[in-house]
Amino acid sequence: MLLSNYKTRGKKPMKYIESKKNDEIKQIAKLSSTKYIKKTGTYLIEGFHLVREADANDQKILKILVTENHEDDRLVKKYYDNAIGISDDVAQSLSETKTPQGIFAVIEVQKKEELTDLSGQWVMLSDVQDPGNVGTIIRTADAAGYDGVITSLDSADFYQPKVQRSMQGSQFHLPIYRMDLHKAIDLAKESGLIVYGSEVNDQAESYTELEKTSDFAVIMGNEAHGLTEDVLEKTDKNIYIPILGKAESLNVAVAAGILLYGLKI
Q1: pLDDT digits (tens, 9 = 90+) for 237-258
Q2: In angstroms, rounded to a whole number, what is the distance separating the alpha carbons of residues 119 and 226?
Q3: Euclidean distance between the first and the last CA atom of the chain, given in angstroms as a whole number
Q4: Where is the RNA 2-O ribose methyltransferase substrate binding domain positioned along the sequence (predicted)?
Q5: How high does pLDDT run on average in the chain?
Q6: 1-42: per-residue pLDDT in tens?
Q7: Taking Cα atoms as reference points, which of 71, 67, 75 lies closest to residue 91?
Q8: How far apart are CA 103 and CA 13, in angstroms?
Q9: Rounded to an integer, what distance in angstroms lies between the CA atom of residue 230 and that of residue 252?
């Protein structure tokens, strides 16, 4: 539906921004920066699925931006007072993809209570740099029914647009914390969780040989270097995935998928 065709029912016409040089658009574009996200307490999501998931999971949507060719009239009508029409040129400037879907939302960062206790099953990420890997692991943790994810301070920020897109709405389904990894490991141990490190070394066991437990945390390491020695010193057990073919290793997100399901089933 064309933006100009909306029935405003006495409301003023929807604001329309045509130029990517518009000051408001420039500010929104900065929401790809971790520094600016922290400064404003807001972040940007893109695409029909993510915006619908944010709405369905009671996220505070501050603005919705749509092009003429968007396909979700219900959301635009619901957030009409905070909706902005944008040109395709503006959409392309905000998008992380070659073919934008024509809908974006500015979301308020939800304040979380400080973690003081852990229970159940958790995933921890240590220096995982690639946004796609971080997002995919979080999505897998959601699918596998984990209780939460903790990312180290040197992992890709989960509010970055590429991570948001890779999570595909899982960010709204389970708690995700960004904190010092050593403190997270200490907290897990104090809470009675067994801490597994995903690493191949002389002390490591195949994940297939482990006795299953209901309360644990599993740490996935950096794409190139794995887990550091200081992290490995804190783990209770180190586990690995047997390589049956000739490949040297697995992508960290693929390895996480195998372990997250393997440790539960």
Answers
A1: 999 999 999 998 999 999 999 9
A2: 25
A3: 47
A4: 44-113
A5: 93
A6: 445 555 455 567 889 999 999 999 999 999 989 999 999 999
A7: 67
A8: 18
A9: 20
- Does the CA dihedral 231-232-235-239 come out positive or negative? positive
- The helix-helix angle for 252-262 and 131-143 (nearest 10°) equals 10
Amino acid at 3: L
Q: How far apart are the C-alpha atoms of 229 and 16, rounded to whole Å?
A: 54
Question: Domains in the chain, ordered, with CATH?
Answer: 3-108 (3.30.1330.30), 121-262 (3.40.1280.10)
- Going by DSSP bridges, is the β-strand pair 15-17/205-206 parallel, antiparallel, or unpaired? unpaired
Distance, in Å, from the CA atom of 259 to the CA atom of 89, rounded to the nearest integer, reads 43
Can you give the three-state secondary structure of the chain, one letter per residue? Answer: CCHHHCCCCCCCCCEEECCCCCHHHHHHHHHHCHHHHHHHCEEEEECHHHHHHHHHCCCCEEEEEECCCCCCHHHHHHCHHHEEEECHHHHHHHCCCCCCCCEEEEEECCCCCCCCCCCCEEEEECCCCCHHHHHHHHHHHHHCCCCEEEECCCCCCCCCHHHHHHHCCHHHCCCEEECCHHHHHHHHHHCCCEEEEECCCCCCEEHHHCCCCCCEEEEECECCCECCHHHHCCCCEEEECCCCCCCCCCCHHHHHHHHHHHCCC
Cβ pair 220, 256 in contact under 8 A:
yes
